[in-house]
Design brief:
alpha/beta; about 350 residues; TIM Barrel
Amino acid sequence: MSIAKHKLPALHNAMWPGIVGKGSDSEPAIDLDTMLSLTAAAEVNGTRFDGVDLFLSLPHTDIDSSDDELKQLADKLSAHHLVAGSLVAPVWPPVGGGSSMGSDEERARFLTQVRKACAIGKKLRDLGIRNYGVVRIDSAAGPSDWAANPSENTKLIAATFREACTIAEGYGERLAAEGEICWGGMHGWCHMVDLLEQVGRPQTLGFQADMAHTMLYTLGYNSPESRLLPENYDWQDRSVLKAALKQVADALRPWTIDFHVAQNDGTVKGSGSHDKTGRHCPPDDPNGKMDIVEIAGLWMRNADGSPTRAYSHICWDGCMFPNAMMTSPETWVKILATMIQVRDAHGWD
């Protein structure tokens, strides 16, 4: 049996790939019990996942869960020897939220979902099943709508996010904005930096870096002005890719308080009701463009090479994997092995 090189950060699996991109226009959703069982069963040389990050929307965890239902959730996690980490707030219109740059009513719905998510986060902490993690948000608006008035829309998103910060602080929570090419005002790395700076609440609002999404930033999808890789880029020249990814990481690493390990094949994908975004691939996908362990280091280590220690756990994100892949136990063993390699290379004690 191999001995782990580091104890931290904790290793988590995301539960929302069982929901995101699933539904009537795609494959059926995978229930939370199945996702938890698959996660808990994965083992590599005695090491298992430490916990899960949760999606606060049905058919997984109801944003309007009662105290009894949250206690049942905590007991369920404990029975699997898992803890809860970061929580996804359902801020989008189809699940009860609203655009953060929309009307007063839409922004109020957005903030209501943030408040409910932060309340759940606190209750899970009080139940002893969640000792770290953030509440994840995005702008809940598309790039094309944002482009109608970029300056004013970014100001409006920032104002909404500042209100969200005040809400989060009341519950002892922190928020992380996940930059993706599908979220207006967050669809390019330079726009993401601008938004974070305009919000100006680094103690409360940070960045959630997902390796699949940040790689798409370098290609300028939905934001040609922030493209870093040359047109007709030769993917065989990995040094150019690493330099581009380093530029993105150097700009956003100081804001990063939540981190997703992932792979990307350089294409975008959307399924179900989810807009096109960074395509997640299994860690052993032959078309994967990144050396996962090496590139994770751009986010997990400071410029001087020291670990950032900016978060207590890292999470694997594999959104929009086919259900056949999602329900195969072998999938999660491969993913766990990759997470262990990342921690061994860039973790701490």
